[in-house]
Amino acid sequence: xxxxxxxxxxxxxxxxxxxxxxxxxxxxxxxxxxxxxxxxxxxxxxxxxxxxxxxxxxxxxxxxxxxxxxxxxxxxxxxxxxxxxxxxxxxxxxxxxxxxxxxxxxxxxxxxxxxxxxxxxxxxxxxxxxxxxxxxxxxxxxxxxxxxxxxxxxxxxxxxxxxxxxxxxxxxxxxxxxxxxxxxxxxxxxxxxxxxxxxx
Length: 200
Fold this sequence. Notes:
Pnp Oxidase, Chain A; Rubrerythrin, domain 2
């Protein structure tokens, strides 16, 4: 545990569309930048397929996840790559915004659509800043924070995993087996680095 883990992050499903392809991922890096005009920023790992789509189209949607969000939503959008699967296929709680991009209708308490006006290279990530073109409040349920996710939504590691020698990703639960974690290791599931791993 470091001081960085004490920031009070919210959790969001970030969605994009490029051509006929829909995609999305879980992020905790969305912020309101200004109110007049309404602007938000997000930081997205360059390894994420959603990053590539936003860079190409300069548009995205954010669905603000609630405390009632099921772990299935985190599994769908966080534990697999949109390069390999259609993350929105068969999802019965999604609709298209005016910009043509999907957003969640049941697990979210609000949504915003954003047109990107600035892109800032941050090394492993890109910060996208843009103006809100559409926003909706969907329900009154409380927003899900990172802490709430860890305390109430994410399943505890099972006993079999804890017997292994290795390291577990605190973000998604991926287990790296081995005595030492390489200093440049990147989680193959959520793309976080060694600072977000802890020993089993």
